[in-house]
Amino acid sequence: MAKLTDILTDLTKKRYDRQANRYDFMEGLMGRLGMRRLRRILWSWVDGGKVLEVGVGTGANFPFYPRKGEIVAIDFSPRMLARAREKARKENLPVHLEEMDVQALAFPAASFETVVGSWVFCSVPDPGRGLREAHRVLRPGGRLLLLEHVRLPGILGRLQDLLNPLIVRLGGENINRNTVENVRRAGFQIEEVRPFLGGLIRLIQASSPGGQEKE
């Protein structure tokens, strides 16, 4: 299973490397459809301390970073991260950027007060593993804040299942993930789930009451 995950991770990384040059254009289109507002809401929930953004991409969330606290941001796509570094340099943004996979975080346990991700766990080959890593690096009482699209119930969900292989091949993201349940299974306590677009998109707040003590 680990070997298959490694193969899928490498394939996903290459897909996002290929998208890096046009990613900001696509994000701009999504922003006009209201996604920028959802990113703003997501980051309004961050209240300082040491924050980890997973799947920073090209830095679409940079405009919404809080002015207080310390932010570390990671991505496993070198080309995406290169664009984020250039953007952070131009904007003189105090963020520490690292090339890293959320499925294998290099940080010690209990390193952060908050972990934030937007449109990330739809693409991670093993989302359960990535979420468990997020739980591991959160301090007791720390918070996980996510913006994700999820699988819908009923016939729409079955349609998502049918379309998913094509969407993954084209863009790398899965459209039929049960992310709220995946968060719960990773050991988090769900605090709030705010639905948009009929529940297709969810803003998720969760906490880690069973977080590990700092090593």
Please describe the structure with a list of short key phrases separated by commas or semicolons.
single chain, 215 residues, alpha/beta, Rossmann fold, 6 helices, 7 strands
Summarize the structure in short.
This protein has helices at 2-32, 35-44, 78-90, 127-137, 154-171, 179-185; strands at 50-54, 70-75, 95-99, 112-118, 138-149, 189-196, 201-207.
SSE inventory with pairings:
Blueprint: H1 2-32, H2 35-44, E1 50-54, E2 70-75, H3 78-90, E3 95-99, E4 112-118, H4 127-137, E5 138-149, H5 154-171, H6 179-185, E6 189-196, E7 201-207
Parallel strand pairs: 1-2, 1-4, 2-3, 4-5
Antiparallel strand pairs: 5-7, 6-7
Helix pairs in contact: 1-3, 4-6
Query: What is the CA-CA span between the terminal residues?
Result: 28 Å
Number of domains: 1
Instruction: Label the CATH architecture.
Output: 3-Layer(aba) Sandwich
Order of helices and strands: HHEEHEEHEHHEE
CA gyration radius, whole angstroms: 16 Å
In the CATH scheme, the class would be Alpha Beta
The percentage of residues in β strands lies in: 15-25%
**Shape type:** globular
State the CATH topology: Rossmann fold
Low-confidence stretches: 211-215
> Which superfamily, in CATH terms, is the homologous superfamily?
Vaccinia Virus protein VP39
Structural class: alpha/beta
The biggest beta sheet, please? 7 strands, mixed
Quantity of strands, as a count: 7
Mean pLDDT: 90
Count helical runs: 6
Strand order of the largest sheet: 3-2-1-4-5-7-6
- Helicity level: 40-55%
